[in-house]
Here is the input.
Amino acid sequence: MSSDRVRAGYTEGVVSIIVNSALFTIKLYFGVLYNSIALIADAVHTLSDSLTSLVVIIGFRVASKEPDSEHPFGHGRAELVAALIIGAALGFAAFELGVESFKKLQEASSLLFSPVLVLVLVASSIVKEALARWALKLADKYGSQSIRSDAWHHRSDALVSGVLAVAVLIGREYWWFDGLAGLVLSLYILYTAIKLVLESSSELIGRAPGEDVIRSIERVAKSASSLVLGVHHVHVHRYGDHVEVTLHIDLPDEITLEEAHRVATLVEERIRSELGYEATVHAEPATSKHRVKHED
Here is the structure.
């Protein structure tokens, strides 16, 4: 795993923990000061985000370990395990939000209005959304599923704080707003959590590469030598940012074994230099496929 990718994971995790801890302290202080159960509950939700950020750090720590005899291709998939854990935690948070929102609708009670509480909640929502957008940019830049999952945890907190701010502001006239908005938000967050879990688990199990990846590998392989007549049986295995590729190339029947080895090595080097993938190439005569079909 590249040092830049690891540094990005550590940075996102540490910054998130610092910001969440600061917001937790501020929310808890004003929640106790104004006896606001809603703000205290939101403070606890914010603190829980620090735990998922800690999972990001641990995931990158394990993923950055060098390959060993038990894991010859490295530990990059540990990052996907971290993403699964965070996605599951996000789903649990969505479930809790839905339950609490339903209870609020049953109780039919409005929130205590205070300009200070509204200000704290709005400021928290803005900070958490900014944190989420920053984390999403890092996730896109480094293709990190665990950072993406943590970013959505930040966004869920921002949405909850924003809804609470509106509920405190208009709660006296529209007591049902907090509960109804919470239910809608819980469904949205649950949908996002399920999507993140499915994406991470699919990658962990071994999702097939997209057609664009296959075409890129075929293009680079053919550009390595004019002797490459065809490319097939392309398989891609991802271990974090380390990618292993295996493929077959068709070569003219009359070339020597030494020449075939030279071309296969050229293809491996070209794929490594242009795409950053570690490739293993199997060379075979161009007519071998026709002979197999004839024998069948």
